[in-house]
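Please, structure for the following, as tokens.
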Amino acid sequence: MKRYEIRYAAVGGQGIITAGALLVHIVVEKENGFALESPTYTATVRGGPTKVDVIVSDQKVIFPQATAIDFFICTDQKPFDLYRNRIKEDAVVILDSNLVKDIGDTHYWKLHQVPIINETKKTLGNIVLTSVVTLSLTQKLTGIIQYNNMVEYVKAWAPKDFLELNLKAIDVGQNLV
């Protein structure tokens, strides 16, 4: 695998920083690859624009900043407007269909518009689980991590009282696209 760049963008509180951390841990601990995350918070973390870039490679990552994003998930308009730069023309882009409306010309992206936040709230009852839904979407659309490794890691990571909800979040992500 060559260098693969992933960006998750949202508003604070939607779990994307956690999604980035989970992805890095799975790549390093389960896939024997190299990965780094680079989160960015605005001054108003809770409810403000947030992003995390994850660089995945089969070689040690020297430069941790995203320069040509291959895969982008965004769940709100403001972070989309702020963080859509550096997305490659052939990138896979997933936008929340209810919260990202003004997207402009996207004919050169492999675009999926799905109700990520609404489906997470409706099915799971808590948008914090967007982190696992996002991870699962990433796994399904990129294959950057194996499904079984993701499930195994989430089982070990999730608090016991929330294990079933986290496993259900994996299913939500797999079924959104």
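Residues 4-176 form a domain with the Pyruvate-ferredoxin Oxidoreductase; domain 3 fold (CATH 3.40.920.10). The radius of gyration is 15 Å.
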